Amino acid sequence: MLCIGAHSDDIEIGCGGTILKLAEEFPNCEFHWVVFSATGAREAEARKGADQFAGVEKLKGPILKSFRDGFMPFVGAEVKDVFEEVKSISPDLIFTHNRRDAHQDHRLLAELTWNTFRNHMILEYEIPKYDGDMGQPNFFVPLSSEQYQRKVRNIMDTFKSQHGKHWFCDETFTALMRIRGMECNAESGYAEAFYTRKAIL
Ligand SMILES: [Zn+2]
């Protein structure tokens, strides 16, 4: 697997539950982990998040970069260089941002993911935000009660620098997973959802 995130905490919020589930169900899988903006306190948090979700033995990397939050489209060539760096990884599955995300950094990484990986299964995850860009995902991963609760616990425990943001609380994360769980009739009631643009049989 390849997990791509713009900022320290995006991967965990977007697909942390799915990563916990895959790590549990496929003991031999590996997670390559790339975060483009992880500086200061957020660097240590990104490392801790990767360890907590992928698990130390399954984790490859993490590759952590120090791009300025919000400015990635303005240094597109340097961002694209990172994709050249990870191009040789040929993952079975890629998690990245949604191409229609309201955040410019997220959109750029989504575009470059598709641009770089042309023969791969790509799932685009969603990040709740005050801009209000929730859409209609078309791919669902039901989570067990243990998995969705562990996701929220890990996020709150890892990303302490974000606790001051009014939206950064367990209720936001739990509520979104509850809605997605309702939409896919998940047994536990909770799920994560993704956008997939292309599926090859
Ligand atoms: Zn982000």
Protein traits:
binds zinc ion, globular, single chain, alpha/beta
Describe the protein's architecture and organization.
Helix content is 41%, strand content 20%. It contains six helices and seven strands. Strands 3-2-1-4-5-7-6 form a seven-stranded mixed beta sheet, with helices on both faces. The radius of gyration is 15 Å and the shape is globular. The relative contact order is 0.18. The mean pLDDT is 97. The structure holds zinc ion (ZN). Zinc ion binds next to strand 1. Zinc ion (ZN) binds next to strand 1.
Q: How many DSSP-defined strands?
A: 7
Alpha-beta classification: alpha/beta
| Biggest sheet, spatial arrangement of strands | 3-2-1-4-5-7-6
Mean pLDDT: 97
How does the overall form come out from the CA principal axes? globular
| pLDDT < 50 runs, ≥5 residues | none
* Intertermini distance: 19 Å
Biggest sheet architecture: 7 strands, mixed
Radius of gyration: 15 Å
Run of helices and strands: EHEHEHEHEEHHE
Question: What is the helical fraction, as a range of percent?
Answer: 40-55%
Strand content: 15-25%
Count, helices: 6
Heterogens: zinc ion
